[in-house]
Amino acid sequence: MAGNIAGSCLCGAVRFQITGAFEQFFLCHCSRCRKDSGSAHGANLFSATARLTWLAGEDQVKTYRVPGTRHQKSFCAECGSALPQLQMAGALLVVPAGSLDSPIAIRPQAHICCADRADWDTHLEDVPTLDGLPG
Ligand SMILES: [Zn+2]
Ligand SMILES: [Zn+2]
After folding, report:
1. 45-55: per-residue pLDDT in tens?
2. How far apart are the CA of 56 and the centre of ligand 1, in A?
3. Which CATH architecture has domain 4-118?
């Protein structure tokens, strides 16, 4: 399954397409990914072979790198949504799973950096699940 995968930001200014397959999918609970995502963990897809094409709004894409680290985030300058980025001098495509509009074949392979997870991030499978908003 190496079709085109579509993605976009929340405001719609940035749209992109990925051609090819993802090799890895990790849920990272490290403190940088928690800050970066505003959530319990990052959810990033990785590929050394897929190609990223910006369809709209490439000039709106900003990239921030935490000084002295390899942690880097790309986002829409208008709405702040996480967007794909190239790392390792262009060798590795990193795609936030939530930025995609197309279904993907790969499932997360591991929760990583769990030693660094939020103190409330335990037994989340025990939390009630609702189909919509709380009543
Ligand atoms: Zn946007
Ligand atoms: Zn992380």
Report:
1. 999 999 999 99
2. 11
3. Beta Complex (2.170)
